[in-house]
Design a protein that fits this description.
Blueprint lengths: L2 H10 L5 H11 L5 E5 L2 E6 L2 E8 L4 E5 L24 E5 L7 H16 L18 H9 L1 H8 L3 H12 L4 H16 L6 H4 L2
Antiparallel strand pairs: 1-2, 2-3, 3-4, 4-5
Helix pairs in contact: 4-5, 6-7
């Protein structure tokens, strides 16, 4: 099934919001966006770059803008549906045909395309994880066994954190000690806590 066939099938499928997404499609057709099909929905692109998509859901339908954070939205009608997960995406949600303001929707679509032409793109900020706490039990081992301390220091920060959390997450002292006994030989061998699973 080629792209156009998949797009047509999406719009033709019987659904409570079939007419609603058809109206949105007609508005998209007035822009210079190219119609594609990705992630099981129609996606509208410019020079191969994703700009917006049209989708229907159980309780609503609408338009999603990949870099919607840059759209001018004085009335505050664009929604960030995954706060904390997505920084750039914004959505227009509708529950009925009467909620669609064609002029506003078309304006957002054209502005999104213009922003894409300008290369406007949000670079996500990379949040660094706080430095992990080295368990006291491990510190005591390092004081007595310098070679183990040296081997631990040669592990990647990610593997060091895994070992530290493995000890810290044990609730009982007895469990902490048994875990400590298990990992010392692994540290000395330069093996990460979960290397066995990673290499499967």
């Amino acid at each position: 099934m080629n792209v156009s066939t998949k797009v047509e099938a999406y719009y033709e499928k019987e659904h409570p919001f079939k007419e609603g997404i058809s109206v949105l499609r007609a508005l998209a057709a007035k822009t210079k966006a190219e119609e594609a099909y990705k992630w099981s929905a129609p996606v509208y692109t410019l020079n191969g770059k994703n700009v917006f998509w049209i989708a229907r859901f159980k309780n609503h339908f609408g338009v999603g803008f990949f870099n919607g954070v840059f759209l001018k939205d004085p009335k505050g009608i664009l929604i960030n549906v995954q706060k904390g997960k997505t920084q750039a995406m914004r959505h227009l949600k509708f529950k009925s045909l009467v909620e669609i303001d064609s002029k506003v929707v078309l304006s957002f679509m054209n502005e999104a395309l213009e922003n894409q032409k300008k290369g406007m793109q949000l670079i996500p900020s990379i949040k660094k994880k706080p430095k992990f706490i080295l368990p006291e039990l491990l510190e005591q081992v390092f004081e007595k066994q310098p070679n183990t301390k040296k081997a631990f220091s040669q592990l990647s920060p990610y593997k060091q954190r895994e070992y530290a959390e493995y000890i810290l997450n044990a609730k009982q002292e007895k469990t902490k000690l048994s875990r400590l006994e298990r990992i010392i030989p692994m540290i000395n061998s330069g093996i990460g806590l979960n290397d066995t699973y990673r290499n499967c």
